[in-house]
Structure formats: C-alpha cells, structure tokens
Amino acid sequence: QGLKVAKDFAKKNKIKNVKFIKSSVLNLPFKENTFDFVFCKGVLHHTDNPLAGMDNLCSLLDEGSVLVLAVAEQDGWYRRFENNGWRLIADRVSQTCSFL
To answer: Rounded to whole angstroms, how far apart are CA atoms 72 and 76?
Structure first.
C-alpha cells in the first residue's frame, strides 16, 4: 500500500527523479555509503531482527548523512524495547552511524 501511495504522490506532483523499490530492511539492494538521507518510518518494529535492520540502514549512509527513524508507539516492538531496549538501539546507532 505504501508504494502505491508514494507512486501516486510522485505522479500527481510530477516528480520524475525517483525510483521505488520494494525490499526488506534485512536484505537491502543498495551499496554501502550510498545515501545522504535515509528515512525509515514504521519498519524496524515489524522485523525479526531490528538491530540488524538498524545496522543495514546505517551502512547505507555516506559520511555526514542523516538517518530519520520512527517506530510505532503501541504494542509489539516498542513495548519489548521500552526499558533497556532503547538503550541497545541508541548504542547500536552510535556504533554504526556517524553523527555531525
């Protein structure tokens, strides 16, 4: 559904310099250090291995890049990580992603 919404938005707004690819965050089809900006909303909390997904996202970032990450605030992954889990995620980001 999300890809259809994005494609419709691009078409309606005449955005042509965009490519839509369906993939798993656990097996991304991109080379490392490829992107200046990565936006990940509502994905990691649906995976079996959110830390591996985070590693994969961070590997896509070029030096000085930005990662925007959002996870659900209800049930599932958020609840499993609301105590020490968020510390794990923060530590993983600081180990695998560079910050400005």
So the answer is: 8
> At residue 73, what is the residue type?
E
Among 24-28, 53-57, 84-88, the range scoring the smallest mean pLDDT is: 84-88
Phi, psi dihedrals of residue 8, rounded to the nearest 5°: -65, -40
Q: How far apart are CA 96 and CA 100, in angstroms?
A: 13
- Among residues 21, 2, 78, the alpha carbon closest in space to that of 44 is found at 78
User: Are the beta carbons of 69 and 57 closer than 8 angstroms?
Assistant: yes
pLDDT value at position 90? 60
Single pTM value for the model: 0.66
* Torsion angle (degrees, nearest 10) of CA 20, 24, 30, 34: 80
Query: Tell me, what's the pLDDT at 41?
Result: 79
Contacts of 56 (CB under 8 A, 6+ apart): 25, 26, 27, 28
Quote the pLDDT of residue 97: 58
